[in-house]
Each structure stands twice: as C-alpha cells, then as structure tokens.
Amino acid sequence: MSILVVGSVFMDSLETPFGSVERTVGGSATYFSIAASFFSPVQMVAAVGDDFPEEEREFLRRRGIDLRGLETRPGKTGFWRGRYHEDMNKRDTLELQLNVFGDFRPQLPDSYRDARYVFLANIDPELQGEVLDQLTAPGLVGCDTMNHWIANARPALERLLSRVDLLIINDEEARQLSGENNVVKAARRLLQMGPERVLIKRGEYGVIQFSPDSVFAVPAFPLEEVFDPTGAGDTFAGAFMGALARSRDRSERALREAIVYGSVVASFVVEDFGLARLKTLTWEQIERRYRQFVSLTDIDGA
Ligand code: AMP
User: Fold this and answer.
1) Between the chain's N and C termini, which has fewer beta carbons within 10 Å?
2) Could you report the per-residue pLDDT of 75-123, keeping only the tens digit for each?
3) What is the second-level CATH architecture of the domain 3-296?
C-alpha cells in the first residue's frame, strides 16, 4: 500500500561538533520518503527549483518514490543552514531561504488522490489541510508541525488536528501546543484535540506513544557516535508510516512494531551527515538492528 507525503525538499548546510557539510539534499519529505521506501512505495508532494540536481532526483526514483507530485518551478530550491550545539538535542537555524517553497500550494496529481496512507510533514497547516481536501478517502493520516506554526497559525493547526489520526511531534512542540510542561499531561491534552494517537519524539531518549487507553515507550537505540541528527524525526515518521502501510494493520501490535522500525531506521540516519547513511542502508542492516533493538529490553535476552 503506498504512502503519500507532503513536505519540504531543501538543500541543507549542516554544522555539528563533528564536522560540516555544504549544500546537501535534505528536507522533511526527502528523509520521510527514503525511510518509508524501505517498506512501501511512496508518492511525494513538494516543490523544488530548476537548480535541483538531476542525480538526486534519479536516486529518489530508483528508491521507488513517485515524483509526479514533485513540482519543478523556475527559481531556487529552498535552503536551510543549521548548527547543532555540543548537546545535539539543541540546534539553531542560521539561515532559511524558502525560495520556490515560499508560495508552494500543493496540487495533487490525479493518480495520488485515492491515497489511503498520508503523512503531512511540517508545512503551513493551511496547506496540510488543502492536501487532505484533495483526497477522496484517506484512511490513516499522520501529521507533524513545528514551533513556528504553533505560535503563528494555531487556529489552522487546531482545525487540522481534528482531521488527523496520528500526531507525531517532538517533546518541545508537544509542550508548546498543549500548554502543559509534563509530557504525559501534554499528550492527554493533545489527544483531546482530535488525534487518535499522539507520538512524542524525544531525540536521544526515544519515543512515547499515547492513546486514550494505552502508553507505549521505546528508547532510542544506544549509539556511540551521533554525527548529525538532521532528519531523524522525519526518518522515524517515514519508517513508522511505511511499516504500517506494509502491514495494512492498525492494531496496537502493528503500531508498536512500526514504532520500533521507525526508531531503528532513525538510529541509522544520525550516523552520518545528511542522507549519506540512508543512501547506503540495506534491508538486512535494518532487520539486524531491529532484533538488537528488541533484545535491548528483553530480560531473558542475554
Ligand atoms: P528535522 O531534523 O527532522 O527537523 O528535519 C530537518 C529538515 O527540515 C532539514 O533537512 C531542513 O531542510 C528542513 N527544514 C528546516 N526548516 C524548514 C522549514 N521552515 N520548512 C520546511 N522544512 C524545513
């Protein structure tokens, strides 16, 4: 079952305590799509400029990502420059040039309109809503957001939350959106805003899923070296939604398994800069780390 994702495709310049990289392909839709493509076909909706490298487009195609919804517009691809602190859960945006992404209005190709699995990555909540309006029968809808929209577009975001099944955000955003400092109280409040489940990403501390009657928590896979956390959240969401679409199951069991796959694939992306590690990742490596992940908390697994 394929997954539709709308989000950003940007060029990134990244600086971490371990080094830096200039103008490498990034963006929420890119990380999401590559991660999801290990599990399911993906339909991407985004906009890039006419400077977007052809070999990168070709790489996405080879991964089974449908690019009919990737609009190429005259002008430059969006650009983001980020710098991570010594504590890599913290980062600063040094530069953001939206370029052709600035007046992007997602227009779905007809072949996308019957998508059942949908992920609305972090863009203006009005536009996330417009994507939903163009779908004939969305089955499972996940969404992300960021502090900018929580502060500046709250009414649109609240309208959107009443239309989504899964809200996947980080702990800081959960606090800001709910007005609650405690993450459990924050999740309870967010569940009242509409989604069936809330998944809170806590960087190196892992992920917690809340539904009205269950809580499920996983750690992040313990790594000796984290080079670049960029895209970890979108990679988690991509592998999570991909695993769900592959299983065609939305039982508690299937969601928990998908959360572990999300955590596993996200643990790879941070091992190198940008998309580099995702580009060499194999299915065997995912499966091996999945087994290691499960044995992390298995008291009989020594
Ligand atoms: P994450 O680390 O999961 O928050 O995702 C980082 C990605 O988001 C980077 O590859 C950036 O290109 C992209 N990004 C940064 N700022 C924005 C923005 N304002 N709108 C859309 N995408 C952005």
Assistant:
1) C
2) 999 999 999 999 888 899 999 999 999 999 999 999 999 999 999 999 9
3) 3-Layer(aba) Sandwich (3.40)
Could you report the per-residue pLDDT of 10-66, keeping only the tens digit for each? 999 999 999 999 999 999 999 999 999 999 999 999 999 999 999 999 999 999 999
Ligand 1 neighbours, Cβ below 6 Å, are 8, 10, 12, 26-28, 80, 96, 122, 230-234
What residue owns the CA closest to ligand 1's atom 22? Answer: 8
C-alpha 180 to ligand 1 mean position (Å)? 25
Residue 139 burial (10 A CB sphere; 0-12, 13-18, 19+)? middle
Q: Give the per-residue pLDDT at 298.
A: 87
Could you give the count of Cα atoms lying within 13 Å of 122 in the half-sphere of its Cβ?
Answer: 21
Q: Spell out a b/e string for 109-134, using b for 16 or more CB atoms within 10 Å of the CB, else e.
A: eeebeebbbbbbbbbbbebbbbbbeb
87, containing H or E segment: none
The pairing of strands 207-211 and 166-170 is unpaired
Express each pLDDT in 118-139 by its tens digit: 999 999 999 999 999 999 999 9
Q: Which of 108, 144, 107 is nearest to 123 (CA)?
A: 144
- For the chain, domain boundaries: 3-296
- How far is Cα 184 from Cα 193, in angstroms, rounded to an integer? 15
Q: Are strands 117-120 and 3-6 parallel, antiparallel or unpaired?
A: parallel
Q: Which helix (H) or strand (E) holds 134?
A: none
> CA 272 to CA 161: how far, in whole Å?
34
Q: Order the strands of the 117-120 sheet from edge to edge.
A: 65-73, 42-49, 3-6, 117-120, 140-143, 166-170, 197-201, 207-211, 214-218
Considering only CA atoms, which residue is closest to atom 21 of ligand 1?
A: 8
> Which residue has the least CA distance to atom 17 on ligand 1?
80
